[in-house]
Sequence to fold (516 residues):
Amino acid sequence: MTPLTDVNYSDLLVEALTRYPDRTAFVAGDRRVSYAAAADGVGRILRVFAERGLTAGDGIAVLSGNTPEVWLVQAAATLLGLHYSGLHPLGSAEDHAYVCEDAGVDLLVVDPEHAEAGAAIVERSSRIKHTLVLGESELAENLLTLLETAPGTTLTRRAAGPEDVPWIAYTGGTTGRPKGVKLPDRALVHTVSTVIASLDLPSVPRYLTVAPLSHAGVLPILPTLLRGGTVIVHRGFDPEHWLRTVQDERVNWSFCVPTMLYKLLDSGHAAKFDVSSLETLMYGASPMSPSRIAEAHDVLGPVLLQAYGQTECVSWATVLRKDEHVPELLDSCGRAVLGQRVVLLDDEDRAVARGEIGEICVRGRGIMSGYHNRPQETEAALRNDWLHTGDLAVQDDRGFFRIVERKKDMIISGGFNVYSREIEDVIAEDPAVAAVAVIGVPHERWGEAVTAVVVPRPGSTVDGPAITEKVRQRKGKHQAPKSVEVVAELPMTAIGKVDKKKLRESYWDGTARQVH
Fold:
């Protein structure tokens, strides 16, 4: 008797590409790609890769804006047994070259827009053997042209085990060099299950992707295709373009990071378009203030769903579902997703009582197997078989978690632990404030002084003293900002998070000891 084997990620890819051959899989501008054409494209990419001598265990990296071909290349890489790393278009050539060396990348694929960056990466890398371009460029051969004459092949599953690593995903690198997060087959399979079971996926999804496919934007694609849905691909986010596409393509599902939603809300365009087809708008990747969540709910309707996780926990840890977006829960990141155990632990890895602050720790099939080439950091992050996220939270009696701070962002002022998230939520209620970040800056008396850095809404003026007084009344004197500074924009990481490390640098520069 043939032994039974677990369903692996390649099984899901083949099933998704072959089940609905006549339906539309991808829409990109005026282009519509059927499932049959997508499957044929993956088969041809497999042949091109194999002709260049790529075999299981080799590495591939992709630097490109969002196109259907990016996902087809990812799928082909998995079916061939390559390990894949996405390079964020906003990253530096130096960091990208480091990723290619660290991950062991043999093939670099870029689009014409990033050909110059691709050349800089190749120049810095001693590892890359092959380069292909998704279009015309002097840098290397045009992969799209090669596909026209490449023979097709029938897509078949790959015999991968649950701990095989199809993806090495690199973090943003705000604390130094990017870290390679090894995402095993079991975690990617669990991610698909999580989307279908826990994220209010429409029965036949029409998914609009605007977040980078090199990062979180890619995760909903396979679940969409398994349901026979359609993926509408945007290369970036523009509020009016997003709204028009929702209207014209009858989009029923999308994912945005909070900064995108802020732009949409502040644009004033939402009332011009019919977005009644939208069933679920997932948001995450960084905190969003309750006041702006409520504003989005008023503008877009009861469609919001929050998913909390991190690269190391690719299938997310908690979800605040659409029907849980009620006023008393808008500061919560929800409850544990199905299949993940989520607890709060103290510094000795002991469970804390309900209502007490602890570190969010996760155990389940959806977490990383470790950091690539970093055994000590892996041991620390996966201590006692728990993924330690670095996020501090409290949990109420119903099981809802509320994040209060990143451990490394906690401010110690006058001996008090100050949690910036609580202050940011109060300040964000001000109608003149578009975005805010609260940090600690050096202070001779207090050690660190609470400082609010605020971006005003267009045409608005921020009243610093009024903000300080409001926080003092709501949170207490020790949490009130000693200073409110107005800036045009906040520094952001490549994946849309406020870069507090960079924000603090100007204040801590020249200081011998940076507490955080």
In short: The domain at 410-508 is CATH 3.30.300.30 (GMP Synthetase; Chain A, domain 3). The chain has a mean pLDDT of 92. The first strand starts at residue 24 and ends at 28. Residues 320 and 334 are 4 Å apart (CA to CA).
